[in-house]
Write a structure and sequence with these properties.
Elements: E1 2-5, E2 10-12, H1 13-19, H2 26-34, E3 38-40, E4 43-44, E5 51-53, E6 57-60, E7 63-68
Parallel strand pairs: 1-7
Antiparallel strand pairs: 2-5, 3-4, 3-6, 6-7
Length: 69
């Protein structure tokens, strides 16, 4: 599992996907999220702007990461 470190209290889901290098742009992030391909803490999420907090686990395309500070 990959670890992504953030300085703020939260980061938006679309930004996590870009930061991890899983998508190339915000448009790509929006597409995969709306297609139901992304899970947060085991649940499918359809909101690109969903706030991701420390300790959350994001999954996409067989990859997973944990957000930490």
């Amino acid at each position: 599992m990959e670890i992504i470190k953030i300085k703020d209290d939260f980061i938006k889901l679309g930004q996590v996907l870009k930061l991890a290098g899983w998508v190339g742009s915000g448009v790509d992030a929006k597409t995969v999220i709306l297609d139901g391909q992304v899970k947060v803490n085991g649940e499918c999420v359809l909101q690109r702007g969903k706030k991701i907090y420390h300790g959350d686990i994001v999954e996409f395309d067989g990859n997973s990461l944990k957000v930490e500070n």
